[in-house]
Amino acid sequence: MSTTNSTSEYLLLFRGSDWDRSLSPAELQTTMSGFMAWFERLSANGTLKSGQPLMDEARIVSGRNGRVVADGPFAESKEAIGGYFLIKADSVEDAVAIAQGCPLLEHGLVVEVRAIAADCPTLQRARQTMANEVATAGV
Q1: How far is the C-alpha of 119 from the C-alpha of 121, rounded, in Å?
Q2: Which CATH class is domain 9-137?
Q3: Which residue from 49, 103, 112, 137 has the fewest beta carbons nearer than 10 Å?
Q4: How far is CA 20 from the centre of its chain?
Q5: pTM confidence score
Q6: Which residues contact 87 (CB under 8 A, 6 or more apart)?
Q7: Tens of pLDDT along 43-70?
Q8: Which residue ranges make up each domain of the chain?
């Protein structure tokens, strides 16, 4: 099944903060060298637009007017987002193929692939709801 997107940008979210805990220092060095080589290939060929690692510590803002601020993240360490890449790809399948090249996958890291929306889906629904109400009122 082919999935197309109106944009060509995808976010690769790197999930899992403990994937490296069982590696020896030599295995960690080899794995990180492979990751950096993958990163540099994506940069050199223009696929990678940006990317950053994220700190483990976070603040969770919620509640009315953002009044509730708590230390986080609260996700299990295997689900915590440790970093991201913003990439260019022709389709979600191409973005998945790029993600499948991540050398950290074999050590338990998970890469989530998300298309960047051309417009906010919630805003699109709000516009459609308003258009439907105007159309119904005019009948």
Answers
A1: 6
A2: alpha beta
A3: 137
A4: 20
A5: 0.78
A6: 9, 10, 11, 12, 42, 47, 48, 49, 95, 98
A7: 999 999 999 999 888 888 888 888 888 8
A8: 9-137
